[in-house]
Amino acid sequence: MDKKIGLKEAVSIGIGGMVGGGIFAVLGLAVSLAQGATPLAFLFAGIVALLTSYSYVKLSLSFPDRGGTVKFMNTAFGISIFSGGMNNLLWLGYIIMLSLYASAFGSYAPNLYDITSDKTLDFHIYATAIIVFATLINYYSIKVVGMIESYAVFIKLLILILFIIVGIYGLFGNPNISQLSVSNWESPLQLITAGMVIFVAYEGFELIANAAPDIENPEKNIPRAYYIAVIFVIILYIVIAFVTVGSLPFKEIASAQDYVLAEAAKPMLGKTGFIIITIAALISTFSAINASLLGGSRVNYEIGEDDELPHEFTYKLWNQPIGLLITAIATIIITNSFNLETISTSGSVGFILIFAVVNLAAFKLNTKINANKIVTILGFILCMAAIIVLVSQQLKTNIIGVSVAVGIVLISFVIEFIYKKTEYGRT
């Protein structure tokens, strides 16, 4: 009999999924968009995540399955072009998240050791190498992946909490704390945009759904796991954003945008603090890449098994589904083709759309899952409104990011449409 997952482990899965590489990758981007109101941007994104976690709780309790989100889509909308397209989008969303983590790793690593004299070249070398290395580990042993993740969750949380404690102490007498004043806040629409661009930092709580069948005492522990994990991470992100904006001038944050958390440790702990946070970022992003490669290949396998992609995706290469290799190759291409803001924007659009549809699924199944219709439809409306604001605002400054996001959504449905038509043509 398999060992059941307790509340502590379930909460760790959610926190580990969210506090992967996201905060290290997108913090500087959030400050560039929201300025002094960056903590508020993280709060906005957190509210959307918290509302959506309600739908995940109800669906996980009623339909516990290792397929998680894939199972919810198929239950609510049947095996159709729509559910298949959304599940394809979930798989591509994993690839985008992997690209985000690899980009963060590639940005932080050269601060410890330069391979060449060209930082851009170093970025590409490190980002590509870490994906290849993590792929090899996934092929070697899933058990090793789990061990890395369990240790990494503890290490990164310990370092981030120490950063907060020392950072809050360091804010006393720091002139940069005035940057948090209302006069340095961007417009409300820009704040919402900032929150939605960095929404990828919250998407990882959905991993709890994949573990739902193995959670002991599910009626109590599944709701607790989701809510404790999401609320804890909301508070963590808000305080980290508060300390960062209060510690460094906006100019320094902008110049170190891709590794700003390490730079924010300098005023408090000097070069030692910079190195410690850099190491934490490398551990976090590496563990997130490891776990997301595994998760992405499983989603791909589930879609193939449900006949929403060719059944060939259930084939194994060596000891893992073929989707692992495809996911890794696609990640390498995206990481080396687009900048951080484009990756973050496209990832956020994809996951907000997925969460909108999960909320809609909970609304549709509300009598079966005993869900509050108002909460589920409010989650759907907020997600859709967030997408509209995000896309309309980003069209002004980041048309490539919006184009990539729209392209990924279209590709997800076109692939499904072609596959279904081809299959029907055979029969």
The CATH homologous superfamily is called: Amino acid/polyamine transporter I
Number of strands: 2
Distance between the termini: 42 Å
The rough form would be described as globular
- Tell me what portion of residues adopts beta-strand conformation: under 5%
Total number of helices: 18
For this structure, the CATH topology is Amino acid/polyamine transporter I
Mean pLDDT over all positions: 91
Read across the widest sheet, the strand sequence of neighbours is 1-2
Structural class, please? mainly alpha
Give the biggest sheet.
Answer: 2 strands, antiparallel
| Name of the top-level CATH class | Mainly Alpha
Whole-number tally of structural domains? 1
Radius of gyration: 21 Å
H and E string: HHHHHHHHHHHHHEEHHHHH
Ranges with pLDDT <50 over ≥5 residues? none
Question: What is the second-level CATH architecture?
Answer: Up-down Bundle
- Helix % is over 70%
What this model shows, in words?
The chain has one domain: Amino acid/polyamine transporter I. It has helices at residues 7-18, 22-34, 38-62, 69-77, 81-108, 119-140, 142-171, 188-197, 207-211, 218-247, 250-255, 260-264, 266-305, 322-335, 340-364, 366-369, 373-397, 399-426; strands spanning 316-317, 320-321. Helix 3 crosses helix 15, helix 5 (81-108) runs antiparallel to helix 15 (340-364) and helix 6 (119-140) packs across helix 13. The protein is mainly α. The model has no long low-confidence stretch (mean pLDDT 91). The chain contains 18 helices and 2 strands. It has a two-stranded antiparallel sheet with strand order 1-2.
